[in-house]
Amino acid sequence: MRILDVGCGVKKFPRAIGIDNNPATHADVLADLDRLPYPFRDNSFDQIRVIHVIEHVSNVIKAMEEFHRLGRPGARVILATPHYTDFSSFCDPTHKWHLNSFSFRYFGPDDAGFGYYTRAKFREISVKVKLLAFWRYLGFEFLVNRFPRFRRFWEYYLCYVVRGKVMEFEFEVVK
Fold it and tell me: Which residues are paired to 103 by β-bridges?
């Protein structure tokens, strides 16, 4: 299985090809992550890992299109990013985007009603929201992750009180 670790940093995923813009990392390929295309052929990877990177890129849609290009049909894209209500989303001045658990719906089957943004399609396999420990212990994290309607209710009405921490997404490349 060929794995690409985008923005691999110093903790590159085992057996992955790492790409990063920082020469002090364990990257196999040094590249500006905002300069597309990346130096790989179409359909090169079975899995693409984007762990705490998407919030740093200049254009989320273009980055997702690049992951779509690089992934084989059925490839998995594993993506993690801070929830916009978490302190860490705003304390890093290199964060350009502050996202929520519905931010990637544009890439789904119904385009969230905005099909003109991109033709890259992904099937959502899972969305997992991690909450601050206090709310996790009270069972809110279970409810948010178990019931999609509760997650929507939480995002709309409760997330500023019951704050999110990190979101983990898994998508399947649809070609």
Answer: none
Q: Which CATH architecture has domain 3-131+166-174?
A: 3-Layer(aba) Sandwich (3.40)
**pLDDT at residue 109, as a whole number:** 79
Show contacts of 84-87: CB within 8 Å, 24+ apart: 84/164, 85/159, 85/160, 85/163, 85/164, 86/163, 86/164, 86/165, 86/166
Neighbours of 121 (CB within 10 A): 18
Predicted TM-score (pTM) of the model is: 0.94
Alpha-carbon distance values, 143 to 62, 69, 109, 128, 166 (Å): 33, 35, 25, 11, 16
Domain residue limits, the chain: 3-131+166-174
How far apart (Å, rounded) are the C-alpha atoms in residues 175 and 159?
Answer: 34
Concatenated DSSP letters for 39-68? SS-TT-EEEEEEES-TTTSS-HHHHHHHHH
